[in-house]
Structure formats: structure tokens, C-alpha cells
Automatic annotation (TrEMBL):
Family matches, as PANTHER family: ETOPOSIDE-INDUCED PROTEIN 2.4 HOMOLOG, P53 INDUCED PROTEIN
Broad class of the protein's primary localization: membrane
UniProt keyword Zinc, yes or no: no
Family per record: Belongs to the EI24 family.
Protein name per Swiss-Prot or TrEMBL: EOG090X06IP
Species this chain originates from: Simocephalus serrulatus
Topology with respect to the bilayer: Multi-pass membrane protein
Higher taxonomy: Eukaryota, Metazoa, Ecdysozoa, Arthropoda, Crustacea
Feature: compositional bias, Basic residues: 39-52
Length: 321
């Protein structure tokens, strides 16, 4: 019973910590600016003692890092205001208007059946054209831009709360860690989808939701852990050992992204909300008391990824040597 209480408490703490970013984001820029001003004042005092002519260089520090709220609003405008709104406008305004005009033009001749037949092939053509010429290019562009904006938000928040990042010791190790992490995340997402297809009512949905919550927690905390120099095995083991907290942390985002029926709209919702969870992950203090029953959900995809890399990159490197 005590263990169950600890699990529920850890989940509750995870949910509460995940929502902190929605509050912190409006005060974080002000706190960062105050921190920078104190550093500039201290630096200027030291410079004035030595060389007064160099004080102008320190005034440029204010504009080096992007504002967190500004970057978040940019994400919301691109993903919610442009991408998502254009989908709703096309499906909710443009298509019904064209259908109404088509029906109206055929109604004079009493050819409503002909109007329905024309619309049956016109609607798919218009939808495919809109997707190919607008949705797909904008989707690729938004994903590319979001990668840089998410990183800017994470780096600015980390520098404020923890100072200079402690990255992995070598560039090659950093690149290998990032590539392997991308493969693990893709395979784990596939594993979550497979869990949702299991022929077990309710249980399959719960398993799939558990996977998505842990994956979204990994997304949110990975920027912080990467800046702290944590390698991928340590990040995954930490989530598996303390899964109740990370299940609760990823639960709000998993629920909100599961509400839209369209995968594209769900991706828009994720991109709009994710900056807040990056900040929440950076400022959170994960509950680590509950670790009696670790869930090794990442172990299958790690084994599969190791097999893939050993049979491709490992074999290629052996032949080269």
C-alpha cells in the first residue's frame, strides 16, 4: 500500500512539474535579464578597474541569446497560426464553399446527382493538390525550424538555471549519441503504435499511452540531460527506474496530442505546446524515491538498434579496416 501511495505521489508530482512551464515562461525572460544585468554590472566594475575603453564590448552580451517567450511565440505562430489554421481554413471554409458553389450551379438544371458525381472526384483532387503544394512543404519547413527554436529555448533556460553546459567530451561522441538517440526514439514510437494495435481492449490503449508519456518525457528532459553530459544509456535507465514520475510528466502532453483525429493536427499541437515542457523539464526536480519496479520498456528497442548498427555500420567499419 505504501508503495502504491509513492507511485501515485510520484505521478502527481510529475503532472504538476510538467505544467510549471506554462507559468515560468512569462517570468523567465525577466529573471534572465536581471541575471545578465547583475553580471554586466559586476563585469563592468572589473573592467573599469583595468581598461575603461573595453566596457562597450560587454554591452553586446544582452542580445546574444534569444528571448524564451519570443521563441515560444514564434513556434506558436508558425505551427498553430500558419500551419494548423491553414488546415482548418481549407477543410472548414474553402472545401465547403466550393461544394456549395458547385451544388448551386448544378441546381438550376436539376442535376444534383451530377453535382455529387463531380464533387466526388473534385474534392480528392483539391485535397491532394493542397497537401502536395502547401501542407507537405510547410510541414517539412516547420520541423526543420522547430529543431533550432527548441534548442534555443532549451539552451537559454539551461544557462539561466545551471550555467554553462557540460557536454560530452568529444564531437564524434556527441554526434553518435544524437544519431543513436534518434533511432531509439523512432523505434520506441513504433513500439508504442504496436502496443496500441494489440487485440486487448483498454489494456492496449493504456500500454500505448504509457509509452507515449515516457517518450514525451524523454523529449522534454533530453535537452537538459544532454547539456549535463548524460549519455543515452544513462538517460533511458533513469526514466525506466523512475517511470511513475516520468509517466505523470508526459501525461498532459500525451493526452492533448491524442485528442485531434488528424496526425498533422496532432503534430501541430505538439509543436505549439512542447516549448513549455522543455522549460518544465529544465526546472523540474524529478521524484526518484520509487524505483522498486523499473520498467525496461526501452530495452527491446535498444537491443534492436544495437543489432541494426552492428550489422550495418559495424560491418562496414570492419571491411574498411
Amino acid at each position: 500500500m505504501d508503495h502504491l501511495k509513492d507511485v501515485i505521489s510520484a505521478m502527481s508530482n510529475g503532472v504538476l512539474d510538467s505544467l510549471r512551464g506554462f507559468v515560468l515562461i512569462f517570468s523567465l525572460d525577466r529573471e534572465i535579464e536581471l541575471q545578465r544585468s547583475r553580471k554586466r554590472e559586476s563585469k563592468n566594475k572589473q573592467i573599469n578597474r583595468r581598461v575603461k575603453s573595453n566596457t562597450a564590448d560587454s554591452s553586446k552580451e544582452k542580445q546574444e541569446d534569444p528571448r524564451i517567450l519570443h521563441r515560444t511565440l514564434q513556434c506558436s505562430l508558425l505551427n498553430g497560426g500558419v500551419f494548423c489554421l491553414s488546415i482548418f481554413a481549407f477543410n472548414g471554409v474553402v472545401l465547403p464553399l466550393i461544394e456549395a458553389l458547385l451544388t448551386f450551379s448544378f441546381s438550376f438544371g436539376g442535376q444534383l446527382n451530377a453535382a455529387q458525381w463531380v464533387w466526388s472526384w473534385t474534392s480528392p483532387v483539391l485535397t491532394a493538390t493542397f497537401s502536395a503544394l502547401w501542407i507537405l512543404p510547410l510541414f517539412v519547413l516547420s520541423k526543420f525550424v522547430n529543431c533550432f527554436w527548441f534548442q534555443d529555448i532549451a539552451d537559454a533556460a539551461y544557462k539561466y538555471s545551471r550555467g554553462r553546459p557540460q557536454l560530452l567530451p568529444s564531437i564524434s561522441k556527441m554526434i553518435a549519441d544524437m544519431l543513436f538517440s534518434m533511432v531509439i526514439q523512432a523505434l520506441f514510437l513504433l513500439q508504442a503504435m504496436i502496443m496500441g494495435l494489440l487485440p486487448i481492449a483498454v489494456f492496449n490503449a493504456l500500454l500505448s499511452m504509457l509509452h507515449m508519456c515516457l517518450l514525451y518525457s524523454l523529449y522534454s528532459f533530453e535537452y537538459r540531460w544532454f547539456n549535463e553530459g548524460w549519455e543515452l544509456p544513462k538517460r533511458l535507465t533513469h526514466i525506466e527506474n523512475h517511470w511513475p514520475y516520468f509517466f505523470g510528466f508526459g501525461l498532459p502532453l500525451a493526452i492533448l496530442t491524442s485528442l485531434p483525429s488528424s496526425t498533422l493536427v496532432s503534430g501541430c499541437v505538439f509543436s505549439v505546446l512542447f516549448p513549455f515542457f522543455i522549460i518544465s523539464g529544465n526546472e523540474a526536480q524529478p521524484t526518484t524515491r520509487v524505483r522498486n519496479y523499473p520498467l525496461r520498456l526501452f530495452s527491446p528497442v535498444v537491443a534492436l538498434a544495437n543489432t541494426i548498427f552492428n550489422r550495418t555500420i559495424g560491418r562496414h567499419s570492419t571491411r574498411s579496416s
